[in-house]
Amino acid sequence: SQQGEEDPQALSIQEGENATMNCSYKTSINNLQWYRQNSGRGLVHLILIRSNEREKHSGRLRVTLDTSKKSSSLLITASRAADTASYFCATVGSSNTGKLIFGQGTTLQVKP
Amino acid sequence: EADIYQTPRYLVIGTGKKITLECSQTMGHDKMYWYQQDPGMELHLIHYSYGVNSTEKGDLSSESTVSRIRTEHFPLTLESARPSHTSQYLCASSALRRQGRDEQFFGPGTRLTVL
Questions:
Q1: How far apart are CA A72 and CA A29, in angstroms?
Q2: In this complex, do B102 and A92 lie within 8 Å of one another by their Cβ atoms?
Q3: Is A108 an 8 Å CB contact of chain B?
Q4: Do A3 and B42 touch (CB under 8 A)?
Q5: How many whole angstroms separate alpha carbon A3 and alpha carbon B14?
Q6: Distance CA B48, CA B16 (A)
Q7: Which residue has the higher pLDDT, A15 or A27?
Q8: Looking at CA atoms only, how far is residue B104 from chain A in angstroms?
Q9: Structural contact between residues A34 and A47, judged by C-beta atoms closer than 8 angstroms
């Protein structure tokens, strides 16, 4: 992978449970973003966390960033069947060209 | 809902044909990008543009070419399609950095199959 690892690669949970996905990256960053992709579709931006931030919330989403470990996590609380999708982390390097480098993604299945 | 459009959504074509994948956005974004994504895999940047008459190669080598004659339009062309070009192609755009917005907005993608 050009960026790092995302784990798990696949996650299957029951509706109402929480889902946690992790992302690691290799180089220093300006910000890290999480995107969601429904099967065969384009990506939708979920949340952005800057390198000087440690935690951010948006609705049922909680993102953490640990720049010392070069890792981030995405937590989806009280999951719904409609959350079934692939989730990608992507980083913008510290040179801040705006180019995104994507991880391999985590496929989440939420069973009703 | 992002105002970025891609056509066609699906394309099945024979080897050797010339194809153009269209991408248009109505958000006035200066930056536009093309990514290639194989099923179940990450996205790879193949081209990007910071504005009119600006085009750059991305991180993944590609035989395709792009042009940016108008802000809203960023077409991708393959002069001679081959089976190895079979993939999904995603177009995205974003505002300039100084506008304080870094997220990219994606089109629905074009799924290309070359027989």
A1: 12
A2: yes
A3: no
A4: yes
A5: 34
A6: 25
A7: A15
A8: 7
A9: yes
**Residue B42, min C-alpha distance to chain A (Å):** 4
Q: CA-CA distance, B51 to B14, in Å (whole number)?
A: 33
Reported as a single tens digit per residue, the pLDDT across A40-93 is: 788 999 999 999 999 999 999 999 999 999 999 999 999 999 999 999 999 988
Q: Which residue has the tokens 């720049």?
A: A67
Residue from the list A2, A42, A104 with its beta carbon closest to the beta carbon of B107: A42
Beta carbons within 10 angstroms of residue B49's beta carbon: 20
| Torsion sign over Cα A104, A105, A111, A112 | negative
Mean pLDDT, chain A, whole residue set: 91
Output the tens digit of pLDDT for each of chain B's 115 residues.
569 999 999 999 999 999 999 999 999 999 999 999 998 888 999 999 999 999 999 888 889 999 999 999 999 999 999 999 999 999 999 986 654 557 899 999 999 999 9
